[in-house]
Design brief:
Elements (H helix, E strand, L loop, with lengths): L1 E10 L2 E7 L1 H6 L5 E5 L8 E9 L4 E7 L3 H7 L6 E2 L1 E6 L10 E7 L3 H13 L3 E8 L8 H5 L4 E6 L6 E2 L3 H9 L6 E5 L2 H11 L6 E4 L15 E4 L2 E4 H4 L2 E3 L5 H9 L2 H22 L1
Parallel strand pairs: 8-9, 8-12, 9-10, 10-11, 12-13
Antiparallel strand pairs: 1-2, 1-6, 2-5, 3-4, 3-7, 4-5, 13-16, 14-15
Helix pairs in contact: 2-9, 5-6, 6-8
């Protein structure tokens, strides 16, 4: 059992939790994730990237968006509650070294898994340019924290309510075109964003790494639900990744598979919320 020692709502439907997990906090590396359940007997297993860790506090930080039944249930948990199942760290860590100039592009909730990666790249001596984006200002997360790492920092919003009114691919292209050589790009966010970041960098022959954690299910390679096509080969995101060469990923296939059960997931979430509120009303 792992205790929730802190909880904060960062934006609409996005929550941060610090969870007591001393061994995971000690062993985790940037890019790795955990598996948790909110109910020991009937709960769905969901993977979430480790956004940060504190070995002194013996805690890990997770940041998640409410999109289905289990994330809804998790968002309803409070400080002092216990998670019955928490396993990790899982997945291959991000390869960290001094590449030179690295551009980190994060969209929406992707800023959370990007933070420890960008921090590690900076500590390794890289020049780190960071681009973050969201639909509106209200949906931006961790801006102050990740800005401290950046040698160059750019914020984009789709509606122009903050920073540049642009998609993240616009400043990414400008940086790739600049006279200063770009040695690597890392993109984390919605699959459609990672697809177009990869298309943006390809003409400049800049190696582009993407994280495909959104398609993971059980996190162990047993279910096969996270299979993706990379360079025309089948890979399992949870055990072969979650990070891959973006120029080799079949994003169209991945996006189609992600949408296959969307209506069922939405219905399950709706039923769970209605059942929960009905139980609360009966208690009153």
């Amino acid at each position: 059992m792992n205790k929730i020692i802190y909880k904060e709502q960062l934006s609409k439907d996005v929550f941060l939790m610090r969870i007591n997990a001393p061994r995971i906090a000690e062993e985790r590396r940037p890019g790795q994730f955990i598996i948790l359940q909110t109910d020991e007997d009937y709960g769905e297993r969901i993977p979430l990237t480790i956004a940060d860790a504190d070995t002194d506090e013996e805690s890990i930080t997770i940041i998640f968006q409410v999109v289905g039944k289990t994330t809804t249930a998790l968002s309803m948990m409070l400080m002092g509650d216990y998670l019955p199942v928490l396993v990790g760290p899982l997945g291959k860590p991000t390869h960290i070294k001094n590449f030179g100039r690295v551009i980190c592009v994060a969209g929406g909730i992707g800023v959370a898994p990007m933070f420890p990666i960008a921090q590690a790249l900076k500590d390794a001596g890289n020049h780190v340019s960071i681009i973050i984006g969201a639909r509106t200002k209200e949906l931006l997360i961790l801006e102050k924290k990740i800005k401290k790492i950046a040698d160059e920092f750019i914020v984009c919003t789709d509606d122009g309510s903050y920073g540049r009114k642009a998609l993240v691919t616009e400043p990414l292209k400008e940086l790739c075109q600049s006279t200063q050589k770009t040695d690597m790009v890392i993109a984390i966010g919605p699959p459609i964003m990672m697809k177009f970041c990869s298309l943006t960098t390809k003409p400049y022959n800049v190696f582009t790494q993407v994280s495909l954690n959104t398609i993971m299910v059980d996190g162990t390679g047993m279910c096969g639900g996270c299979r993706v096509s990379v360079n025309n080969e089948v890979k399992f995101v949870c055990v072969d990744g979650p990070e891959f060469n973006g120029h080799q990923v079949d994003f169209d296939n991945m996006i189609a598979r992600l949408n296959a059960y969307k209506s069922i997931e939405q219905q399950k979430q709706k039923c769970f919320v209605e059942k929960t509120f009905k139980q609360k009303e009966e208690l009153v």
